[in-house]
């Protein structure tokens, strides 16, 4: 049944003997999500080489954040999520900023997935309009959230793993269609365009507290689990981007409408039709699980943290994404970029500041301890600030 936050998770047989694998899966399932669908197009704008460098650097930056956050959790006797750690180590302003940031991030993701579901369903079925299917999807997903059926990060990891496998198969069967010239474009003037979308795709801090619960008495494996769970998404994103961009290419991406620049939609138009259909179905299911998990989380934030009536909490969660879609206020890629730059940037800055404070104020001996990393932390904060300024401008 329901389990209190911080209570050790119990597994049997195989799973109890492989807790690190479970923890790795939890982190990967949170990081590798529907955000992957926006990476190939934004990388196409800058060129694969610059995109490769950005994916690598941002992936390593988020790996550092995950390690910082893991040590914070291990240095703290009581279990929290980010707003709780922000309040403990930074004060009330930290909790306030963390709470606002999380709400902004969830609203952005819900809006993007609602747009993505509409265009993906329209591409698969070939009639109606993206707006019609976005609204129909919204009705179904909102009903599921209202009645309390939950989705998990592991379900999304399974779906995204299948999606990556399908894309690899598309690459194999469309090997002749992968054009080297699609991977050799270079546009230094567009180097920062992919930043927000890539950062969005690497965010997975919410999984780190859960990893501690899953490791129970094996918390010494926390560091290695974070390393493995953070490095694998880097490899997956690079492989996925190489195949999609190699097949579709910058020029073909530019011929598509803004909301058709989702990776699987573009693949279905320029690669093996049958495999393209499978890729779109998996993308559809992945965005569904993301929408359900995040929608449920935000309803609970309003209902539990802000003590609002559940119906009002549900209404506040659902209304903004629906309005963004109905009034066509933005596109899938744009929302991912804005959400990644601001939500990811604020979250990253908070984690660095919390990490430095926890080094002095923590009330537990951690299973691993990093150096204070003032230079690295300062560079990360600078990157996040510049990323937000660039996205704003």
| Uncertain stretches of 5 or more adjacent residues | 1-8
- State the helical fraction: over 70%
Structural class: mainly alpha
- By DSSP, the count of extended strands is 0
CATH top level is Mainly Alpha
What is the name of the CATH topology? Amino acid/polyamine transporter I
Strand content bin: under 5%
Shape estimate: globular
Biggest pleated-sheet summary: none
What is the radius of gyration? Answer: 20 Å
Number of helices: 16
The average pLDDT score comes to 88
Order of helices and strands: HHHHHHHHHHHHHHHH
* Superfamily (CATH H level) name: Amino acid/polyamine transporter I
Tell me the count of domains. Answer: 1
Under the CATH scheme, the architecture is Up-down Bundle
Quote the distance from N terminus to C terminus. 48 Å
Word description of this protein:
- The chain has helices at 14-17, 19-31, 39-46, 48-74, 82-90, 92-125, 130-146, 153-173, 195-202, 208-215, 222-255, 263-270, 273-305, 310-326, 332-361, 374-392.
- The chain has 393 residues and is mainly α.
- It has one domain (14-392): Amino acid/polyamine transporter I (Up-down Bundle).
- Helix 13 (273-305) packs across helix 14 (310-326).
- The longest helix has 34 residues, at 92-125.
- It is globular.
- The N and C termini lie far apart (48 Å).
């Amino acid at each position: 049944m329901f389990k209190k936050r911080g209570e050790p998770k119990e597994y049997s047989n195989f799973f109890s003997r492989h807790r690190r694998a479970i923890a790795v899966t939890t982190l990967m399932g949170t990081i590798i999500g529907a955000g992957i669908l926006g990476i190939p197009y934004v990388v196409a704008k800058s060129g694969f080489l610059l995109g490769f460098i950005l994916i690598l650097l941002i992936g390593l930056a988020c790996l550092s954040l995950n390690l910082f956050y893991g040590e914070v959790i291990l240095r703290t006797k009581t279990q929290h999520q980010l707003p709780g750690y922000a309040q403990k180590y930074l004060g009330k302003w930290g909790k306030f900023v963390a709470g606002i940031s999380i709400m902004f991030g969830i609203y952005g993701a819900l809006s993007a997935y609602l747009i993505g579901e509409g265009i993906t369903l329209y591409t698969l079925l070939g009639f109606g309009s993206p707006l019609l299917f976005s609204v129909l999807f919204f009705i179904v997903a909102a009903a599921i959230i209202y009645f309390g059926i939950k989705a998990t990060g592991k379900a999304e990891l399974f779906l995204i793993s299948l999606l990556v496998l399908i894309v690899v198969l598309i690459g194999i069967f469309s090997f002749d269609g992968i054009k080297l010239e699609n991977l050799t474009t270079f546009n230094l003037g567009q180097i920062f365009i992919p930043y927000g979308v890539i950062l969005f795709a690497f965010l997975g801090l919410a999984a780190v507290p859960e990893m501690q619960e899953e490791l129970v008495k094996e918390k010494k494996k926390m560091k290695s689990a974070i390393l493995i769970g953070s490095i694998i998404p880097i490899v997956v994103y690079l492989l996925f981007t190489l195949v999609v961009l190699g097949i579709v290419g910058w020029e073909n991406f530019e011929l598509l409408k803004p909301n058709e620049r989702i990776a699987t939609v573009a693949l279905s138009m320029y690669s093996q039709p049958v495999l393209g259909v499978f890729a779109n179905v998996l993308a559809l299911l992945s965005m569904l699980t993301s929408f359900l998990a995040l929608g449920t989380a935000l309803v609970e934030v309003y209902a539990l943290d802000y003590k609002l009536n559940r119906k009002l909490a549900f209404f506040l969660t659902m209304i903004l994404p629906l309005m963004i879609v109905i009034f066509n206020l933005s596109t899938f890629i744009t929302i991912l970029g804005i959400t990644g730059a601001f939500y990811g940037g604020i979250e990253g800055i908070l984690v660095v500041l919390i990490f430095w404070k926890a080094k002095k104020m923590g009330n537990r001996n951690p299973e691993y301890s990093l150096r204070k990393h003032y230079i690295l932390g300062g560079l990360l904060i600078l990157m996040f600030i510049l990323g937000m300024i660039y996205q704003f401008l």
